[in-house]
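Internal tracking record. Fields below are filled automatically when a chain is submitted to the structure queue. Please do not edit lines marked as system-generated. If the sequence contains nonstandard residues, flag them in the REMARKS field before resubmitting.
Queue: standard
Priority: normal
Entity type: single polypeptide chain
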Amino acid sequence: MYSQPGNLSNGERIASAAFGVGLTMLAVRRGGPLLRLLAGVAGTSLIGRAVAGHCGMKAAVTGQSSLKEGMQEQWRHTTEIGQRLAQSVGRGRGDGQRMRRVEKIIEVDQPLSAVYNQWTQFEEFPKFMAGVREVRQIDDTHLHWKAEVFGKEEEWDAEITEQQPDRRISWRSTSGPPNAGTVRFEPIGENRTRVRLVMSYAPDGTIEAAGSALGAVDAQLQTSVEQFKSFIESRGSETGAWRGEVSDSRAH
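SYSTEM-GENERATED OUTPUT FOLLOWS
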């Protein structure tokens, strides 16, 4: 869709998406005509940056393009995203609890058992998962989560439904925002492991539906898996392990 290569980091994309969705919702919900216009244009421009991974004005400032080309590129992002935002908000109001799916794959330079063991240490997730504030393990199969979702604090309970050491972990929420997923582990060398994370979730309301459709959740999850990779590779070993098995939500 965009002609220029990306020049924004994942952190910059997430921040742009969060601020952009917030400004756009401000434009929809309150303020006079001028405030709504300015907030709407600024919001869609920031969302355009996040989705494209590219900022035309940054390209102009850093010498990647001329000022005119940068302004044209930024305006093109803004108008295209404005059209998609209008469509996604309409869908968000009518979709109910329709689940969205995100998949991420990353290769980690650590042995299979170490990578799997680290993922079983759920209370360590806030150290690398974007937006996660706290994970409290209640027992072998139940967790309580606190996270920031589009600037709003959310809490929910989840249960581990399947767990096979060195192969996979599956979960689903039992309260709060509906979500479920599976993370699979595959050895691709003596000291290298492929992690495949598949997650389904239901956007809760117009803001979340818009952010989902515009790629904010995708960018946040990408950051999380990359930070997981950095976390365990920098340590050189796992922080702990749980090697039990779970089937049909029951630990063995």
